[in-house]
């Protein structure tokens, strides 16, 4: 898939987030990268045989106090990783949406254990 088309899917996924939730996104940038860097892989703690689909790097809203004049948090969606686990265009759309929601949840302070409980 062309990068522009993949980026469009990410924007569309963000657009599906309800406005009352989107308006609470604070100082966070959402980007698409082809693949994670070695530093991102090591820092994520991902198991060796797994693919990193997305990554939240920053300070969740639930941990912020006296917060200002800092660089934005960063959510990265990894195109090649998502494409590698999907076989159809529809699967890519679904996975992009799920990954965007998953990483946004980290921005709101929801950890992986709780996301698993919620089925996200």
The secondary-structure class comes to alpha+beta
Q: What share of residues is helical?
A: 40-55%
CATH fold description: Zincin-like
Q: Biggest β-sheet, characterized? A: 3 strands, mixed
Question: What is the mean predicted local confidence, pLDDT?
Answer: 89
Order of helices and strands: HHEHEEHHH
Which geometry do the CA atoms define? globular
Terminal Cα span: 25 Å
Rg calculated over all Cα atoms: 14 Å
Examine the secondary-structure arrangement and name the CATH architecture: 2-Layer Sandwich
CATH class equals: Alpha Beta
Q: Give the count of helical stretches.
A: 6
Q: Low-confidence parts lasting 5 or more residues at pLDDT below 50?
A: none
Total strands: the figure is: 3
Care to describe what's here?
With 120 residues, the chain is an alpha+beta fold. It has a single domain, classed as Zincin-like (2-Layer Sandwich). 48% of the residues lie in helices and 13% in strands. The protein has 6 helices and 3 strands; from the N terminus they run ααβαββααα. The protein has a 3-stranded mixed β-sheet. The longest helix is centred in the last third of the chain and has 19 residues. The protein is globular, with a radius of gyration of 14 Å.
